[in-house]
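User: Sequence in, structure out. Go.
Assistant: Echoing your sequence, followed by the structure tokens.
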Amino acid sequence: MEAPNRPYHWWKHDFTQRNSIAARRFEHKFGINTGYGIYNKLLEIMLHSGGCICIADLDLHCDEFGFDEDMLRECLTFACEYGIFYQSDDGFGSCFIDEVINSGKVISEKRSQAAKGTIKVPEPTNPPETGLVEKPEKKTKEKPDDIPEDEDIAVVKSAIQAMLKHGDNVSGLLSGNKKSTLTNAEIRKLIDRYGIDLLLLMIDEFYLWKLPYSKVIKSDYMSIIKGWVEENARKKLKDKPTKKGLF
């Protein structure tokens, strides 16, 4: 992975951090205070080492951050199983850390351009007759095609509403995450792709993650079809554990 062009990075860390699904997963696994500290320390390691935790450098990270190597491997494996981190050929990364680094690069580039005076503001085109600025036409936002609600779609929508209702008990949620963006057509695609039984487990898994997430999810459909949601749901379908949510 490419090293960031800045030695230091910052991400929003306030009272909402404890509500993030990643932090709560770690607390559930390793204990409230211990899990919270482990999760944030792993994020620090990633930023400190250029965006990822390299497998070849695990012993160095253990010495620097006070981890036992077996404990560090257990934490990384656990985080990958729940989609909090991902594993590549050389190490472990985090989509959250990728966003932090990329946003830092964009801000740095804009500041550099502003300092050099290379950011140009386009001049408005004025009609010679009136001298008034011509306003661009507003583009109408196209709505996706939808379909009538059938019995299976109604079952899935009922499960979604139940998860959103549980989310009302969690403080500090972003308003955009308190609702579902799924249309009937998208729900039908999910049913045809995964089947109703697996999809209901995927709905539980996804909204447990979405509701406390620190950023607004624009498309529930595009997020649900990511591999980690299906993988976690299939484990539950296979093992049939006692249902135990985080809310």
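User: And one key feature?
Assistant: Confidence is low (pLDDT under 50) at residues 1-8, 242-247.
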